[in-house]
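Morning F.,

Quick status update on the modeling queue. The single chain you submitted on Monday has been processed. Sequence for confirmation:
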Amino acid sequence: PSTFKRARTTGEETLQTQSIQKDLADILEDLTADWDTSHDEAIGPDTKLIGDLHFESIDVVQLLPDLEAHYGRRALPCEELCMKDGQYVDEVTVGQMVDFLAQHLN
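Structure tokens below.
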């Protein structure tokens, strides 16, 4: 959550962040529409991909190229999002993904 607030420093960045969050929520809702999950809340910055949306690691791996295609960008440094100190992270939140995208789509 603290990194999510960091990205909101100007009106333009806030608008971009909100746009990315909406796009990401729409993409995640489309991906998980047919999944049998118990997550009935709206997808927001604190939503956890694995804990709340029941993503498997392969789902995260597939999501990243989908995002690259959606935004028309290639070779986003996904290791920045998925790894910390040389180890894969256990969880990624929507807010972390929004921050990551906002940083790398500029």
